[in-house]
Amino acid sequence: MFALMDNIRQLPYNYLDKYLTEVRTQGRYAFTIEEIKDKFNLSYPAIRQNLFRLKLKKEIAFIRQGFYVIIPPEYSRQGMLPPYLFLDDLMKMLEKPYYVGLLSAAALYGAAHQQPMGYTVITQSPAPRSIDKLKIVFFSKQKFIQEGIIQRKTPVGYINISSPELTALELFEYIHKFGINRITTILQELAEEMKISALLKIAKQYPDTAAIQRLGYILEKEVLTEKLSDLLYKVLNERNCFPVPLSPQKEKKGNIDHKWKIIKNMEIESDL
To answer: For residue 258, what are the CA distances in angstroms to 5, 25, 180, 206?
Structure first.
């Protein structure tokens, strides 16, 4: 205890300010309380006291236990950084593999049509608690399809995002959250980014057969991309397929498209 007190007396008042400047010169916006403890050999109460001072000055922001971000002048009005500037550091601290997915991934490809309200991160089960104040929502999956995860450069490094092909399939896996009309609108733009070879690799590994059926049907009937839809039809020919409703949120009544085994229980209305 006395050694810690001596150490505090030896440190300048603004030791933490200088440390944050050092972090920024490394091209990082994020830091952990453990880093500071290890570097300065201080107690948690002593560190938190200084962190509180910087929070009051709105020079840092608390994200979750033990994890903070630095707020540079250009983001002082917002009081927070965009998640892509610290997400990779956060997931490393949590020791969780991840990728940005669904509407957030579609937006990065210019295909969200409307800016998503939140930031969707796919991680392995069990998922961390969502960060409501930042609208970061975590979804969990048991198994990742590695061929469907790519890296996108950011000003501070890279973040993992789902490829256009994986994004398209996962939108149908989570169809109950977005609805068929919104997904169709997104696909009309996202399909331009999709590659046949990549879609083949991912679709063969994709466990949700109903998602492949719905994606193939929409690509053929609404987006009019025969090369992509024909490939998915070949993948389905190697599986046991059963009739599924186009919209799982509506009654299972309607004519059946026998090629895709889709029950047409609604009319699609795209926003484009």
So the answer is: 77, 60, 19, 22
Angstrom distance (rounded) from CA 147 to CA 263: 31
**5: confidence class by pLDDT, cuts 50, 70, 90:** very low
The residues pairing with 32 across neighbouring beta strands, listed in sequence order, are 67
pLDDT value of position 12 = 66
Confidence of residue 6 (pLDDT cuts 50, 70, 90): very low
- Cβ distance 141 to 124 under 8 Å? yes
Tokens for 81? 């950084």
Tokens 């409307």, located at residue = 114
> What's the pLDDT at 92?
95
Domains annotated on the chain, with CATH = 2-81 (1.10.10), 85-264 (no CATH)
